[in-house]
Design brief:
Two copies of one chain form a homodimer. Chain A is built from eleven helices and 16 strands. By secondary structure, chain A is α/β, with parallel strands linked by helices. The first copy, chain A, folds into two domains: 244 residues, Type I PLP-dependent aspartate aminotransferase-like (Major domain) (Aspartate Aminotransferase, domain 2, 3-Layer(aba) Sandwich), CATH 3.40.640; 109 residues, Alpha-Beta Complex (Aspartate Aminotransferase, domain 1). In chain A, helix 6 links the parallel strand 6 and strand 7. In chain A, helix 2 packs parallel to helix 8 and helix 3 packs across helix 4.
Chain lengths: 370, 370
Amino acid sequence: MAALHEPLFRGHEWEYVKECIDTGWVSTAGKFVDRFETMLVDYTGISHASAVVNGTAALHVCLMLAGIRQNDEVICQPLTFAATCAAIAYCGGLPHFVDVSPTTLGLCPDALETRLNETAEIVDGVCQNRLTRRRIGAVVCMHTYGHAVELDRLAALCARWHLPLIEDAAESLGSFYQGRHTGHWGVLSAVSFNGNKIVTTGGGGAVLTNDPYLARQAKHLTTTAKLPHRWEFEHDRVGYNYRLPNLNAALGCAQLEQLPNYVAAKRTLAQRYAEAFRDVANVSFFTEPSGCCSNYWLNVILLDHPDRSARDAILTATNDAGLMTRPAWQLMHRLAPYALAPHGDLKVAESLYDRLINIPSSVTLGESHG
Amino acid sequence: MAALHEPLFRGHEWEYVKECIDTGWVSTAGKFVDRFETMLVDYTGISHASAVVNGTAALHVCLMLAGIRQNDEVICQPLTFAATCAAIAYCGGLPHFVDVSPTTLGLCPDALETRLNETAEIVDGVCQNRLTRRRIGAVVCMHTYGHAVELDRLAALCARWHLPLIEDAAESLGSFYQGRHTGHWGVLSAVSFNGNKIVTTGGGGAVLTNDPYLARQAKHLTTTAKLPHRWEFEHDRVGYNYRLPNLNAALGCAQLEQLPNYVAAKRTLAQRYAEAFRDVANVSFFTEPSGCCSNYWLNVILLDHPDRSARDAILTATNDAGLMTRPAWQLMHRLAPYALAPHGDLKVAESLYDRLINIPSSVTLGESHG
Ligand SMILES: Cc1ncc(COP(=O)(O)O)c(C=O)c1O
Ligand SMILES: Cc1ncc(COP(=O)(O)O)c(C=O)c1O
């Protein structure tokens, strides 16, 4: 079976993990968490990183620190993994869906602008939904399959509407927009190191931010909100046990050492796919939007026309043949928990759902062969 | 430095963890999670176990599945680690503190009965606080430092008051009450495998239950609430990414193999401490309550009389000398986030806070020497 995305361990993974076991430092203390965070800062150029148990937890922290609370609406795209919306729900918020762009597969600035003009107003400096009377608390964009959204336009729109921008960069470690790593434009950004991502810690994630105050808050909140003391256990707020164990960070350090090679291999694979599909009728290979240097986390082919039965025929044939392929996630506005969530016109996402297929994208497939 | 509790790896830890790395199964799939859950079931005799990222997540799941919702009160003890209360807060609930017993250090059945008689009533089958008009949704007891509370009496009281009992068994893996493992009396119970616990997965926890329906719900909720399908991603409720990574489960399998030996060593250490402190004036070593066969997770000495400055003098002297000791956690009703939580008389807990000191308790200290 050719998997959609398989992890690859052939650097210092075993050495670092063994060091944890040999020294007994596998849990909440140990040097690999700090080293992992430093490596993330060095690679992304974003000044602070807090390693956490997974990408979902990272998103939850981003939303809490952006101030999302009971009954807030949070604007996001319907084409995403369910964790984006779940994290909003954990804060008591409700997603408010805005369509994606056909050129990025992520949140569309035009659709966002239209939707805000139609439904939002600023009251006493706060963005409000005129129809529902709820506060709109933030915008979360997601870099679908590793392709960056138009961050400059989205960031400008968010600033104009007093909305903090959060980047769900779970899939875009190694993806750059206008020369800077994704995650730079959001007030806070979330990364995932799940086993299906470009690099993995088993389970893991990180909160990235350029704001030193938010970074301190992220660390405090994710480490049970305990106040420093030689022996007393005192906590000044409801905290979370979201810190990444040292064992998982050790794996992550070895993986981050490989990241530039992995990105290169994945870009090579994407180029091969692009050539292979060039002359195939009725199907096109999705390539990175302008301004984005993508990690091509999961490669995408698109049917020229929405056709659910053609899509399913391809999914069946390929999976039967041992080539793992997958459609887009079911769109979020169609899931039971978000049935009552407000949304604008979502015709691009709905069309993509009927046209999109992910194809095998493991690093090894992109390495030179022959 | 003699630590309070150090992990010990000298069984198959390496072998199993290396197998994960060699096969690439470090994350959400792989055989060690299943094996770890089966081992937990075999050891505890509780029929279902769901492995999760940590004990805090396990408690959160227990409370969600017990139906705790916005504005519920949940009865718990003030002498506990902050996670017990944090998990209540995650559900939108408020702790309602009831005193501990001096013989168990955990929730006191007499205090619970008194408090319920004073403040609660059953309205349409639902337990309500007559004073605050809030629903009382559950009782959480915690087996402090590994010593079981009086589970039979607590379970009977909970049944009488229509309250689900949840056991925070984070510290009591290896502790038995009336011949059965702790966790048996609760509708749901939570275990922790943090690095400071008797066995560790780096970070980890488990939800235990004898109810097959709740067990299925626990698994579904902790694995993003995804519906099974060959390729579609559809989720029928707001789910959580709480599953334990396979890498951590691998470590846990090797650790569980050692658990009976570790319990034996810790019980030997406790016996030595008991003898050593027998004739020491003004201080006594805390021994397991009747009916409980304790794992003696953290050993406890108690000053005969509450004396915070005597306590602090001992803490300072021992820590300065490289023997790690620690007081009880700051009592929960004294923490800022729970300042407004209802509570009964808490004089036992308050006295214990001024008298209690944890002393070094690692497994290796209890192994035969000489
Ligand atoms: C877009 C998106 N957001 C969030 C997540 C959540 O990350 P994790 O699985 O590490 O919790 C993922 C990955 O699973 C994702 O693809
Ligand atoms: C009583 C109690 N409850 C809950 C927890 C939470 O477990 P974890 O640290 O694995 O999240 C712990 C341990 O830290 C604990 O001692």
